[in-house]
Specification:
Number of domains: 1
Structural class: mainly alpha
Radius of gyration: 18 Å
Mean pLDDT: 92
Number of helices: 9
Order of helices and strands: HHHHHHHHH
């Protein structure tokens, strides 16, 4: 248990000689953002996710099978928006991938721009704007985020996908005969997603969609501020 707590702490407060340095806590921050925006999309835009594409594929199948609580159009829009964002993120990795700090900064700045527009739309229309517009404004930046985080390659911090992360907690545990490594970081990732989803759901249900999106924007601003420091550091060049 001590090793798990120590690793969790080092994920949030990396040692000076950690090869990923500040990237790890910044990705934890993006994981919280993911929880917030998926709470917004699922609870206020119908049964659809803007970050969890596995869920959307399943939802699409449900809708095509006649389940009335799910929308074929919403699922397709989310998948398309995410794919466009991932394509844009892929282009960013080609041009900026040689410096992980700069790549993260540009990706987060782009994501924040999209979310800022979504906040503006939510405030300006009192939430009455077309559902598919919100799905697009949130799906594209999450696609960008995923593509760039994939290039950053910080172990166990994918920011959106927890299936393999949680599998690793059990499959690599000493109880399963494994070495028991990385459990602390994996649990931090899961708790970050959980916490973000709780905050997003609470704001959507008790305040407004705009309040939840504004919280996501504030978190992105904080991550961008941290990423700016990474962008100036030569330690993330050529990683």
């Amino acid at each position: 248990m001590t090793a798990v707590i120590t690793e969790a702490w080092r994920t949030l407060h990396p040692r000076a000689d950690d090869e990923h340095g500040a990237l790890a806590p910044l990705l934890v921050g993006l994981t919280v953002v993911t929880g917030v925006v998926d709470a917004v999309s699922y609870l206020s835009l119908g049964h659809v996710f803007v970050a969890n594409m596995t869920g959307n594929v399943v939802f699409l199948a449900f809708a095509l099978s006649g389940a009335t609580a799910f929308s074929v159009v919403a699922s397709l829009v989310a998948l398309a928006a995410f794919s466009v964002g991932a394509l844009a993120g892929g282009r960013l990795t080609v041009h900026l991938g040689a410096h992980r700090g700069r790549l993260l900064l540009v990706a987060v700045a782009a994501e924040a721009a999209f979310v800022a527009v979504a906040v503006g739309v939510a405030l300006g229309t009192s939430g009455s704007a077309p559902r598919d517009l919100f799905i697009t404004l949130l799906g594209v930046p999450l696609g960008i985020q995923n593509a760039c985080v994939r290039r950053l390659a910080v172990p166990d911090l994918t920011t959106t996908v927890l299936t393999l992360t949680l599998t690793g907690v059990s499959a690599d545990s000493r109880l399963a005969g494994g070495a028991g490594g990385h459990s602390g970081r994996r649990l931090v990732s899961a708790l970050a997603m959980f916490g973000g989803a709780c905050v997003g759901a609470t704001l959507v249900l008790t305040v407004s969609r705009a309040a939840a999106l504004g919280t996501a924007l504030a978190l992105l601003a904080a991550v961008a501020a941290g990423a700016a420091g990474c962008a100036r550091s030569p330690r993330f060049a050529g990683s």
